[in-house]
Amino acid sequence: MINRNALRTALTASLGNGFASITGLPDSQYVALAVLSVSSGTYGTSFELGRQRLLGTVLGSVLLLIGFECLQGLPIAVGLAITLGCLRLLGGLLSLKVGYKVGGMIVVMGWLVHEGNLASWIPLRFFWTALGVVLTVLSLRLFWPARGIAQCLGRYGDLMEQLQHTFTALAQRLEPQAAAGAAPSPAARFRQLRATLQSARSQRPALLQELGNQPQRHPAVLLVSSLDAAASRLVTMVGGMERAVPPERDPHLVARLHQAEAELLERMATQVGIWSRQLRSTDGLPSPPPRELELPRSWLDLGAELNDPLANSASLERLERIATRLVLCRQAEQAIRDGENSWRAIMAKR
């Protein structure tokens, strides 16, 4: 029920309040408010929230001073409405998603509560807000560092683990002794893979914000892009395999083709399992798998099996399904090979 982010936020807010109490300056509650509003699970997200909060504070302060001096002759409701409307317009032009809310609070509080001491209240408000943002960003580096790289790679590690179980289930379904109905629902399994892939992709914006200027050249971004390309091809392959379900009764030769397919799926399951462990084994950039994907002998000899005239004894529909599944397996095998080659190239240039 209590995670690291909650403990980090509480500790940072307490430190901010303690420092504010020592200084004796007024309006120190804005330190804790800034910490609570900026604190998040990653450095990049907190940095972006802090940036928007500071920009919103500056924008709201400027409009408050201008509106309070120029619109005093109007009723308070009209003056506030005009000032807040300008704030929302400028906030949209500056692409502020949350910063304009902070500016609105400054306009309302300054106009209604601190109208007599704006010259001292505005600098103090900005100081306490900036201090809260700085403390939050520092806490993400010092207290249980929450790095976007580790979280992003961890999500792809979760996806690879799910793919491992999926490949194993697909292989077991091809084995003659596999029990009918033992595998989970194919549609549910495919939806879960897609959801995990989307969750992993949602971590990318925070990663880009964390890496600063020109993040596209960073090895972490290159590795994530390579992993995403490989994962997308593998998930697509699973969807195709689920749509091309093998028939229950096949000639002997077709059964041997399914056996080669099952052995390849088991090897790929083992390999993506290694990917999963590598991606979740370190907080930095993980090392590529120590061994390349080893293809089973039955899969390597598949060309000779396909040239056997006995394969024509199966129906055209069955042969089309088999061909579709073999092409999908070939594409999955190539996706793993391409991903590992790119992984090694990125780590070599690091």
At a glance:
The chain is mostly helical and 350 residues long. Helix content is 75%, strand content 0%.
Beta-strand portion reads: under 5%
* Main sheet characteristics: none
Oligomer: single chain
Shape: elongated
Succession of helices and strands: HHHHHHHHHHHHHH
- Helical/strand content category: mainly alpha
Describe this structure in words.
The structure is a single chain. The chain is mainly α. 75% of the residues lie in helices and 0% in strands. It has 14 helices and no strands. Helix 7 packs antiparallel against helix 11 (252-279). It is elongated, with a radius of gyration of 29 Å. The two termini are 39 Å apart.
Topology:
Elements: H1 4-23, H2 29-38, H3 43-70, H4 76-93, H5 99-112, H6 118-142, H7 148-174, H8 186-202, H9 204-210, H10 219-243, H11 252-279, H12 297-300, H13 302-306, H14 316-349
Helix pairs in contact: 1-2, 1-6, 2-6, 3-4, 3-5, 3-6, 3-9, 4-5, 7-8, 7-10, 7-11, 8-10, 10-14, 11-14
